[in-house]
Design brief:
Elements lengths: L1 H36 L4 H4 L7 H11 L4 E5 L14 E6 L2 H10 L4 E5 L10 E6 L8 H12 L2 E9 L20 E7 L6 E8 L2
Helix pairs in contact: 1-4
The structure holds S-adenosylmethionine.
The site of S-adenosylmethionine (SAM) has 17 residues, from β2.
Length: 203
């Protein structure tokens, strides 16, 4: 209880009253959704009011003017919900988070349980995968991405600074894509120790 009050006060000092209140309300609502749908706790403690990179990421995505956007590891679909594109498809291995995303987001977005090998879209303008690929080894990531490069025009990924505190096992710099994709934009989007890269696939 005292810990919780301390955290609330620290949030108020850092973000001010209005944003702290918004974060508190959003986390409370997501906690309820987590109980209903049984998804991983991370989603309930990281609402977009707290992790605003999703807003900036959607703005980067919107610059591509994509027809077909696919996000793998889409979570609750908070990024896809902010992207303007006729076709938006989210894949995630967590069945609970996909059920929640279907309930929370517009029916214009398609959500499927799955990962990179399950992506069926024949042509993808923008493929997004952020905030999870660093849990997997480089050869795994390469084998996931390589077949999709033939079908994708742009990739949006994140890189993590090895010097910062990180829950990840790997720190991919996507150098293995050299000669196959070129970085056209690189932004921190308010995150410490993380940057987001927009890569154009060389056709
Ligand atoms: C930290 S969340 C990030 C969600 C979203 N990308 C965002 O930034 O809001 C990571 C998500 O990746 C999903 N995930 C983890 N491993 C995956 C895999 N191999 N394939 C697809 N999704 C995966 C998790 O279930 C989780 O929903």
């Amino acid at each position: 209880m005292i810990d919780r009050a301390r955290r609330l006060f620290a949030g108020y000092r850092r973000w001010g009253l209005a944003r702290s209140a918004r974060i508190f309300v959003d986390k409370s609502a997501l906690k309820v959704a987590q109980r209903v749908f049984g998804f991983a706790e991370w989603h309930a403690i990281a609402p977009t009011s707290l992790r605003t990179y999703r807003v900036g990421l959607a703005a980067m995505a919107n610059e591509v003017k994509a027809n077909v956007v696919v996000e793998v590891g889409c979570g609750l679909g908070a990024i896809l919900a902010r992207i303007n594109a006729p076709t938006r498809v989210g894949y995630d291995v967590d069945d609970g988070v996909i059920r929640a995303a279907r309930a929370l987001r517009s029916r214009a977005i398609t959500f499927r349980v799955g990962s990179f090998p399950d992506v069926v879209e024949p042509s993808i303008d923008l493929l997004i995968a952020v905030n999870w690929p660093h849990d997997f080894p480089p050869d795994q990531l390469d084998s996931w991405l390589t077949p999709l490069l033939q079908r994708a025009r742009y990739l949006l990924v994140d890189i993590i600074a090895p010097s910062g505190p990180s829950p990840y096992r790997y720190f991919h710099d996507f150098a293995f894509l050299s000669g196959r994709a070129t970085c056209v934009r690189r932004e921190p989007l308010g995150e410490e120790h993380r940057e987001f890269l927009l890569l154009k696939v060389i056709q």
